[in-house]
């Protein structure tokens, strides 16, 4: 089967785990190159990619330019600062960019909620790990009863927060809060992140509080949450309710607690915060790749019809 060529820029923990997910599960994507800024002798991600038979480069953005005619999609797994510099170049090259940094050049995408709305965009942003875990629950509540205020607390293992995550902590809270509003539908949103140093490392846990306009449709709200969890599990198997959601009728509040266990493709299973990002990015890339292949098939059929 024909596949769409893709490149991964940034061979750190997130980029490497994404590589494993695409190699293991993608139906429509083929990784043509993994690109970093250090040679394989100093980059475990590039070394592993090379071992998998994938072309590697360590010349940064030039590594994308060199193969632009071989790829349609680029995954940015670097930093927000790097993506702000790279995004105009990707656009000029005619590539679809899936951004795993908090740069948010393009619209926020949470696959279970709004991927269908943005398949015509050339740059989409995967929000944050907390956003991918919690925005869908806020959206699920909001589609039954308007969410006046959403507050989420994401607690992750300190060990799973690398230099990039720590550098982007401020962007994490700001981006996640905005996504609760723009994608989740909350009138106001607030996000808090906790880096827990416990040993052994904790599993990612997310607490979501929603203050709603109308609490009368209690059962419909709960069912909407259960349905959303099942949808997310299609691309994040380790995503689950830790306890059943609770409705506090006197406070007009709905509270849910979600835990995310990673698949262990490259990262440890406790790193669910990183796993949900790479799983969401892979799911988003798969949708774009399927769309690209369908468009090619339509074009080929038209050319064939004209030649007859």
Strand order of the largest sheet: 3-2-1-4-5-6
**Residue runs with pLDDT of under 50 for 5 or more positions:** none
Element pattern in H and E: EHEHEHEHEHEHEHHEEHEEH
Calculate the terminal CA-CA distance, rounded to whole Å: 25 Å
Average pLDDT across residues?
A: 95
- Text of the CATH class of the largest domain: Alpha Beta
Inertia-based shape: globular
Domains, number: 2
Q: Return Rg in Å.
A: 20 Å
Enter the CATH topology name of the largest domain.
Answer: Rossmann fold
Task: Please identify the structural class as seen in this structure.
Answer: alpha/beta
Describe this structure in words.
By secondary structure, the chain is an alpha/beta fold. It is built from ten helices and eleven strands. It has a six-stranded parallel β-sheet, with helices on both faces. β10 and β11 form a beta hairpin. The radius of gyration is 20 Å and the shape is globular.
